[in-house]
Amino acid sequence: MSARSRSVALAVAWRGVRLTFTTPALILPMLTFPLFFLAAFAGGISGIERAPGFDFASGYTAFVFVFVLLQSAAFGGVFTGFGIARDFESGFARRLMLAAPRRAAILAGYALSGLARAAATMAVATAAALVGGMQVGGGGVDLFGMYALAFLVNVAATLWAAGVAMRLRTLQAGPLMQVPVFLVLLLAPVYVPLDLLAGWVHALAQVNPMTVLLKAGRGLISGAPADVALAFAIAAALIAAFAAWARGGLRSAEASGA
Amino acid sequence: MSAAPLAHSGLLVRRSILRVARQPANIAFAFAFPLLLLAVNAGGLDAATALPGFPSGSYLTFALAVPFIQGGLFAALTSGQGLGQDIESGFLKRLALTPLTRSSLLAGQLAGSLALGTFQAAVFLAVGLSASAGFAAGIAGVPVLLALSIVITLGFSSVGALVALRTGSGEAVQGMFPLFFVFLFLSSMAMPRDLIQHDWFRTIATYNPVSYLLEAIRSLLISGWDAEALALGFGCAAGIAVLGVTGAALSLRTRMVRT
């Protein structure tokens, strides 16, 4: 990345971060929803860990925390997509595209701001889970791997949402960014391990890439890594696919003169 | 009520129902979202039925109560947004120039969401039964379940209308929607209260009226006729409705000041 591209990316990222962290309407839902889900799942459903066949050494709070972590990362990306759509609606993105020498740097800037959002949300969720008595069995390297996986999920989700936002250029496209991510998250082993899922949810979860990411994350937090290489490979493949999707969106926005 | 207010109310009822019916996207969402969550949770939490003391052998039957409450929440959104739009567009101010009574207006505004709520309840019950969910109360329980759904819908819709009247904005009603969902999630939605492990969560669920709405519906599905559960469910739903309707009526008096 050239110096000019880097300066564009950093400027876009800084604007996104500043806007997010100084606007209560943006920061509050982003920080409170993961906490709410953590409380609702770890508090309300934890009794299910006594079900026959449920075996997770670090306890139910850690089990659902990994889901909340990946969900926060994914929705951090979706919220970044909302910001891009808002910039197109307000006309800011048009001015930005006129000013930037390399427009891919704009995309990189949005992705960086998405990472910053995700970092804040994940930090708050982690603090809440630890206060709530979460047991961590994994060591430093394991935890680094778990957070790295979450950041990769965030980048993939940002690129997905950016592709939608740049093609449709309206906030009304919000459900189109959000619903597929929501479905992929929901149709994974959210509450119990894969083996305890029943019916069609089990069948879908078996082929859902999020299942592998969750399994790897849960293995890392409990200090018993499983399918880690496969999870990182899947995350990398998702990023590659959605990067192409986002570049296509950028070309669409350029062609429309938006 | 004399004939004129009834006729006025009838016109607004018709308008309210048509407005709901003319938004297929909202209707589809109001049906698809609760049924999707039901399907996912029925598969995802089926293992809970193996817990000692779990009241049913089918998690689908246990979870079938949830869409009825979610239907009420969507009804709240529908009525609140509709009223908010009427305030924003100035329609309510024009109505204030007519001899229309406030009670007619409120009844008319709530009718559309009540119709949607009733239809939702019938569909959720039909889908649940066709998916082999149990219904222990038998055929006599169907009208009781529908009646409870209507009172729940009335309660939530009136709260939606109250928010719209207090804020004058459909967007504000939408903003309240996540808060409604907080009440649902912090209840006995996913587990019976006696199987909730954490004391703090069980305490919140015990003070949360949504738990009693769920447990009343569940009693019809799982245990048959449980007078205490039904009384608590109808009582909580009626309490919410009385508070909501009274609050909305008082707010409407301020909103429709005839100058």
Account of the protein in words:
- The complex is a heterodimer of chains A (258) and B (259).
- With 258 residues, chain A is mostly helical.
- Chain A has one domain.
- Helix content of chain A is 78%, strand content 0%.
- Chain A is built from 10 helices and no strands.
- Chain A is elongated and about 60 Å long.
- Chain B has 259 residues and is an all-alpha fold.
- Chain B has one domain (24-97, 114-255).
- Chain B is 78% helix and 0% strand.
- Chain B has 11 helices and no strands.
- Chain B has helices at residues 3-21, 24-44, 59-63, 65-89, 91-96, 102-130, 141-167, 170-185, 199-207, 209-223, 227-255.
- In chain B, helix 4 runs antiparallel to helix 8, helix 4 (65-89) packs across helix 10 (209-223) and helix 7 runs parallel beside helix 11 (227-255).
- The two termini of chain B are 25 Å apart.
- The A-B interface holds A 29, 33, 36-37, 39-40, 42-48, 50-54, 186-187, 189-192, 196-202 and B 36, 39-40, 42-48, 50-51, 59, 178, 182, 185-186, 189-191, 195-198, 200-201, 205.
Structural descriptors:
heterodimer; A: 258 residues; mainly alpha; 10 helices; B: 259 residues; 0% strand; elongated
Summarize the biggest pleated sheet of chain A: none
Helical proportion of chain A? over 70%
- The Rg value of chain A, from CA coordinates, equals 19 Å
- Helicity of chain B, as a percent range: over 70%
The coarse overall form of chain B would be elongated
Number of strands of chain B: 0
Note the main sheet of chain B: none
